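Hi F.,

I've been meaning to write this up properly since the lab meeting, where we talked about keeping a consistent format for the predictions we share between groups. The idea is simple: the sequence comes first, exactly as it goes in, then the structure tokens exactly as they come out, then a line or two of notes. No screenshots and no reformatting. I'm using this chain as the first example so we have something concrete to point to.
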Amino acid sequence: ELDTAAARLVEDGVAAWSGGAERERSLIVRGRANLLQDAGALEDLERVRTLFDDLEQKQQLIGLLDGVSAAQGVRIFIGAETRLFSLSGSAVIAAPYMSGRQRVLGAIGVIGPARLNYARVIPLVDYTARVLGRMLDGRDT
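Output, unedited:
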């Protein structure tokens, strides 16, 4: 069941960062259209528009994920805790994925509303980061 939930997490929306040398870095942001599914009120649509503007600031997003890669385990940023998403009221849950030698390969995260179901998303991000690290390192999952 956790594998299915992790697959859905990646399908629904993910920000993944691959570290390394400056010219080797890549940032993948997926699932932005899924953010519109829950936007019912005009206020919510304005928040989503602000979030899309925030996502265009890729250097700031990479900076946020750089901070995640320096941490051990899952990091949570809610609203005003990060300048990047303070206006949209969004939350970021992210974790580094590592090689078997504990070298950070990148970071993966979920961006959503501050009222996100943290109890469900945190273990999914953690699990997905661990599996991704094993897969990229050639270890068995």
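Notes:
DSSP finds four helices and five strands in the chain.
The first strand starts at residue 14 and ends at 18.

If this format works for you, I'll send the rest the same way.

G.
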